[in-house]
Task: structure prediction
Amino acid sequence: MKTRSRFSAFLVLCFLVALIAYLDSPFSFIHKDHSYMTSEPAVAQPVDTEPPSDVPVLEQRLEDVKKIDGYYIEIYQEYEVYYDDKGNVIKREPTSKTESIKYWDKNQ
Result:
């Protein structure tokens, strides 16, 4: 008898949880006046991605390659590049940031 009452209490609890989950979902009859989905897909509008001429674009350029103790070391310099409206480079200024990549020469 005790296991039967526990089982029935468990079933009632599962039913209540399922009912509450349904009523809280956007598909229940309570939320029928609210639209959560559209029948028409959203159309993405193209965006003009050209940067304005007064804002620099940061670029990395390879400055030097050295071979030291069986390793190649590539040194890159960061530049601020300014473009005009047609995409031509107006000026290119180096920044103080440099990066290096070190990798082993497997042919040695």
Summary: The longest helix spans residues 2-24. The radius of gyration is 32 Å.
